[in-house]
């Protein structure tokens, strides 16, 4: 159980982040639901947690903004006194073929998916070092391991997240802080709902378990990595992909 733990989940207004926030709260953590644009939906997630007897709050912050993340993390420390779990889930796609990809589509994806994770770890790890404990979970993707045509920016950002995870795990291990990544495959959320049926059909044919994953499947993995049971696991990439990539 996560009773008394303070958890931050970035990009928790919908999709995988929402499921993680709800799961951690159901296990007893107080969850800070981060969002950028979807305030009403973040408030709905908070209300759903409270309705189940859990504890949650919301905080708007663009994770790609370094000083914004500094203010966000300091707000959490000032309000709650500690940070036990940090889930870097916020992410975007700006798909396109490499030869046609704009500079801004490349930069935006790297800034949100990779730099965003660096920004929060940069400020939260100082508090975790003081506590001599902490759990950091970064959302990677199978495409960060396998690559994917049309997603050079996204695949690069997720491969970067894996490198960041492994480096941070080595830096922070001596103070009892674990850092792991989750690499989801094809999960049914708004991010994947926009893909053409042809792409979805091709994707499902590459999944040995034969079905798309659900946000709860990823949330279960995050809850495990956040738990005491995972205390001897760090620097790892846990695939939640129905067997897509090994
Ligand atoms: P989603 O439904 O599109 O939700 C994305 C979330 O990220 C939203 O809550 C959004 O909040 C937030 N976000 C986006 N930009 C942000 C920013 N700059 N600052 C703060 N929050 C921001 O996506 P999802 O499918 O749940 O994906 C969640 C994570 O899993 C992402 O990192 C994604 O790359 C990864 N992933 C997903 C899949 C999949 O198949 N779905 C597979 C592999 C990996 P606002 O709307 O409030 O901005």
What does this structure look like?
- There is one protein chain.
- The chain has helices at 15-26, 39-51, 66-80, 103-131, 143-146, 152-172, 190-193, 197-205, 215-226; strands spanning 6-9, 30-35, 55-60, 85-88, 134-139, 177-184, 237-240.
- It has 246 residues and is of the alpha/beta class.
- The mean pLDDT is 98.
- The structure holds NADP nicotinamide-adenine-dinucleotide phosphate.
- Residues 10-17, 34-38, 62-64, 89-92, 112-113, 139, 141, 184, 186-187, 189-192 line the site of NADP nicotinamide-adenine-dinucleotide phosphate.
Topology of this protein?
Elements: E1 6-9, H1 15-26, E2 30-35, H2 39-51, E3 55-60, H3 66-80, E4 85-88, H4 103-131, E5 134-139, H5 143-146, H6 152-172, E6 177-184, H7 190-193, H8 197-205, H9 215-226, E7 237-240
Bound molecules: NADP nicotinamide-adenine-dinucleotide phosphate.
Key terms for this structure?
single chain; 246 residues; alpha/beta; seven-stranded parallel β-sheet; 7 strands; binds NADP nicotinamide-adenine-dinucleotide phosphate
Task: Summarize it.
The chain has 9 helices and 7 strands; from the N terminus they run E-H-E-H-E-H-E-H-E-H-H-E-H-H-H-E. It has 246 residues and is an alpha/beta fold.
Distinct helical segment count:
9
| Rg, nearest Å | 17 Å
What percentage of the residues does DSSP assign to strands (E)?
15-25%
Span of the ends, CA to CA: 30 Å
Helix percent band: 40-55%
Small ligands present: NADP nicotinamide-adenine-dinucleotide phosphate
- How would you characterize the largest beta sheet? 7 strands, parallel
Structural class: alpha/beta
Overall outline: globular
Rounded average pLDDT:
98
């Amino acid at each position: 159980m996560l009773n008394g733990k303070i958890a931050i989940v970035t990009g928790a207004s919908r999709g995988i982040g929402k499921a993680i926030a709800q799961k951690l709260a159901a296990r007893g953590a107080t969850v800070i639901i981060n969002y950028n644009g979807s305030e009403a939906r973040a408030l709905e997630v908070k209300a759903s947690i409270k309705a189940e007897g859990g504890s949650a709050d919301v905080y708007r912050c663009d994770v790609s903004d370094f000083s914004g993340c500094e203010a966000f993390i300091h707000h959490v420390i000032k309000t709650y006194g500690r940070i036990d779990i940090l889930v870097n889930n916020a992410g975007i796609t700006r798909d396109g073929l490499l030869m046609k990809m704009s500079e801004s589509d490349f930069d935006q994806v790297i800034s949100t998916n990779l730099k965003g994770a660096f920004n929060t770890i940069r400020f939260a790890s100082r508090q975790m070092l003081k506590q001599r404990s902490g759990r950091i979970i970064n959302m990677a993707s199978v495409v960060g391991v396998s690559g994917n045509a049309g997603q050079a920016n996204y695949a690069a950002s997720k491969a970067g997240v894996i490198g960041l995870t492994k480096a941070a795990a080595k830096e922070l291990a001596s103070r009892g802080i674990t850092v792991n990544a989750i690499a989801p495959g094809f999960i049914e959320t708004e991010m994947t709902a926009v893909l053409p049926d042809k792409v979805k059909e091709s994707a499902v044919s590459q999944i040995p378990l034969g079905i798309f994953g659900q946000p709860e499947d990823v949330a279960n993995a995050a809850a495990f990595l956040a738990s005491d049971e995972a205390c001897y696991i760090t620097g790892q990439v846990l695939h939640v992909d129905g067997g897509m990539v090994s």
